[in-house]
Amino acid sequence: MDGNLPLSDHCVVVTGGASGIGAATVQALTAQGSHVVIADIQQEAGIALAESLGPRALFCKTDVTREEDIVAAITTAERHFGPITGWVNSAGVIGAVGSIMETTVTAFDQTMAVLCRSVFLGIKHAATAMKAHGGGAIVSVSSIAGLMGGLGPHTYTMAKHGVIGLTRSAASELSALGIRVNAVAPGGTVTPMTAALTGGDSALISEAIRSASPLGIACMPEDIAGGILYLLSDAARNVTGHTLTIDAGITTCTPQMGFHTDSPQVLLHAGQRSDQEPQQA
Ligand SMILES: NC(=O)c1ccc[n+]([C@@H]2O[C@H](COP(=O)([O-])OP(=O)(O)OC[C@H]3O[C@@H](n4cnc5c(N)ncnc54)[C@H](O)[C@@H]3O)[C@@H](O)[C@H]2O)c1
Question: Is position 230 annotated as part of the catalytic site?
């Protein structure tokens, strides 16, 4: 293989494509020869990205919480580039934060609309369009917060678990139509979303992500885009209902307790010094 995935002449809609992981996916897809519609609410950034990529990319102002906008994004893609073969749900926000006891129903509903209703609408309408043309591939961006608790705010965590659930459920129905449905679960990634947590300081968030990473890598949007392109491509033709974790090893372990060294911290926590022989039961 020459490093290129077989994605030339595909037509892919990328929600949230104006920024971060979505933008990196748009860039990688056009570099592989795909046509891409950037479906995002950020008009200025979306148009600028599309113009920088030339005739293979197009911006379509889309609020992913609105069904009519999702339908319009598909119509736009098909009018300009032909039948859609791929759909990526990457639009997202951190949404409601704070204690479960203080989270308002309004904040909960708004967060779920951007993170979950959007994915439902994307899969629903992408599948309808793909069914008419013999199949396709859909990839949604979940999160490692969709795999366990404590890695994101409550509503975000619930929503990202939901994305993985719908990925499995939709995959089980749509396989018969030649439509594959997969997800990626990124760990902390250096994007405007995470940079906002440090007041927009990318260097600071990059170092925070790198130092929390077992591999010692600050995950970049391109790292996630690589996984998305794999799942969209025919290289993954036998893969559906899968969630690909791309997290530099964060979910391989709880915070390092030293089990893989000679002095496991867990024994110290249990009141035993690391230079003592383990006690016999
Ligand atoms: N950055 C991370 O550490 C990380 C980790 C795991 C998962 N994710 C997920 O990756 C996805 C992309 O996030 P990112 O980090 O690239 O963030 P980002 O802020 O760079 O990009 C998110 C994009 O979504 C768009 N968007 C937000 N609400 C929208 C709406 N209603 N309609 C249309 N577009 C909308 C924004 O305009 C923006 O362009 C999200 O689903 C996020 O939850 C991110």
Answer: no
pLDDT in tens, 243-263: 999 999 999 987 666 666 666
Assess whether the C-beta atom of 30 lies below 6 angstroms from ligand 1.
Answer: no
Same domain, 243 and 267: no
**278 C-alpha to center of ligand 1: Å?**
48
Same domain? For 204 and 273 the reply is: no
| Domain identity same for 23 and 40 | yes
- Kindly state whether residues 57 and 183 are assigned to the same domain: yes
Q: Does 212 sit in the ligand 1 pocket, CB within 6 Å? A: no
What CATH number is attached to the domain comprising 84?
3.40.50.720
Residue 279 lies in a domain: yes
In terms of residue numbers, what domain contains 280?
254-281
Q: Is residue 4 part of a domain?
A: no
Atom number of ligand 1 nearest to Cα 21: 16
Same domain, 274 and 242: no
pLDDT of residue 7: 85
Q: What is the pLDDT of residues 179-225, one digit of tens each?
A: 999 999 999 999 999 999 999 999 999 999 999 999 999 999 999 99
Q: What is the 3-state secondary structure (H, E, C) of the chain?
A: CCCCCCCCCCEEEEECCCCHHHHHHHHHHHHCCCEEEEEECCHHHHHHHHHHHHHHEEEEECCCCCHHHHHHHHHHHHHHHCCCCEEEECCCCCCCCCCCCCCCHHHHHHHHHHHHHHHHHHHHHHHHHHHCCCCEEEEEECCHHHCCCCCCCHHHHHHHHHHHHHHHHHHHHHHHHCEEEEEEEECCCCCHHHHHHHCCCHHHHHHHHHHHCCCCCCCCHHHHHHHHHHHHCHHHCCCCCCEEEECCCHHHCCCCCCCCCCCCHHHHHCCCCCCCCCCCC
